[in-house]
Amino acid sequence: CSMRLTDYVDSYALSHDIRPATLEQYRVTANVLNRWRGKPVDVEELGDDMVNRFLRDIGSTSKPHTVASKKRQILAIWRSAAEDGYCAQPKRIRAVKLPETKRETWTAEQARKLVESLEKIRGRMPQSEIETGLALSALVRVAWDTGMRRSDIFRLERTHAEHDGWLEIVQRKTGRLVLCRLSPATRKVILRTFDQWACPRRLIWPGGPSVVRRLTALIADLAEDLGLPCYRQPF
Q: Which residues of the chain have pLDDT under 50?
């Protein structure tokens, strides 16, 4: 029996451990393919010729990284559907050439200048009453020490800054276990945010998405004032 591609995406999510955000990306890609095709696509229709023409056509209006992402998502769904017996496995799918991207970096001296400037900011954050300058400095220091994604950094707790500073973190995006270490100076700044005036808490930076946006915007504003490159990009 036939099955719509969009329906199979939901079935795929039931049998695979994927994040809600990833499932939503798969749904978006399935709908993009539907619009390109001009009608809802059935899983049985997936084939080299159709998918290659789809990638070629969207490549004329989309960035290479977007096309590559759509290709990965379609192939994941397609291979699963083939294993379930709905269609044949993909054979020859066109490559997507990705241009090299320029890496923007900060030197240790630039990062040091930034954290020193951040620590001069006075006042306390709404609700949590954490000292703003220390919270911002700790955030940049953790990013510098670990290289972790922002989504992983904001999950850190006070206990991560205690003991020897070694962290075993399962990345939210990849599911991989990574090992990294906070420097003594970074741990000291983090623990200073847990003073007697701040509200009791478990997370180093509590408050959810609104706090993430506020803190990263404050860092970006000061980095711009200091003339640091790529100041608006998530660290």
A: none
